[in-house]
Amino acid sequence: MKVRFLLISILLIPLTLWANQKDEFYELKFLVYNTHGLPGIFLRDKPDIRFPEIGKKTQEYQISLLQEDYSHHELLSENLNENSLSFRGRLNDQLICPFCTGSGLTTISNLSDKWKIEVVNETFETCSGWFLGLNDCFAYKGFQLIKITTPNKKNFYVLNTHMDAGSRNSDRSARKKQIEHVVTTLNKKIPNEALILVGDLNLNSKNNEDRKLFEKMKVDLDLKDSFENIQRSKKWPTLDYILYRTGEKINLNVLEVGEDKTFVNKQGPLSDHPALFIKVSIL
Question: Who contacts 268 (Cβ-Cβ below 8 Å, separation ≥6)?
Fold first, then answer.
């Protein structure tokens, strides 16, 4: 009888190990932050002080998803974790447009080498404003589609984006086309995959037309708003979002979401946008 029990136990050990490996889950914390990184001539604060501090703060997150990282990227990069990986969006082409900036998108990973991260950058085909409005056409705005592979070989995706600003009809029309670009791309490339979509969408929660665009995007991509039942600070207009969905092969569960209020120094906030975060479990 003891021999039989021993044999059964030995046979079950591989199955137990396999089950544990299959059900392994991870917890990741993401930062989402518009860094207010315009060229210094347009700023009234001190980016040479702010950006090193922002770089240091990214060390507290596994993944940081930044917008408006235009003109002070070196100051940011010099203060990252020494093992960090940094992925920038499209850069400006000075020969074609001497006054243009890049996309301003940067993804920073502090994941271990057991993880794999791949980033594809894409530029929007539409913009609003060269010398009128908020001059968005001087930036090559677009999105980063990030594929993250866990140590147990499961994939999920993150999209980091910054859409046209402004409240003119042409601004909103540009945002509408940019959203359609994102929706078409994601539904074609990763229709049933787990996804976190973040960024400065410039969809003002207090504007009816912007809210319609926001709600339609959620439906078209089957996304949930992680801040849906969270009281957001009245200090900031609601332009920055963290949306998510689970996938057929991987489950995303939101553990915590909010604003990281430590992104300040003696002069005040490190940007003119809130530093948002989300902590998720991945199974």
Answer: none
Domain count, the chain: 1
Nearest to 80 by CA among 52, 102, 101, 115: 52
Q: Please state the rounded mean pLDDT for residues 15-35.
A: 75
Answer whether residue 64 is part of any domain.
yes
Please give the full DSSP string across 14-26, using - where no structure is assigned.
HHHHHHHHHT--E
Mean pLDDT of the chain: 88
Residue 13 lies in a domain: no
Q: Which of 99, 145, 143 is CA-nearest to residue 123? A: 143
pTM, whole model, 2 decimals? 0.89
Strands 63-67 and 26-34 come out as: parallel
Task: Give 154-168 pLDDT, tens digit per residue.
Answer: 999 999 999 999 888
The range of the structural domain enclosing residue 221 comes to: 24-282
- Given a cut of 60, is residue 31 above it in pLDDT? yes
CATH number at residue 59: 3.60.10.10
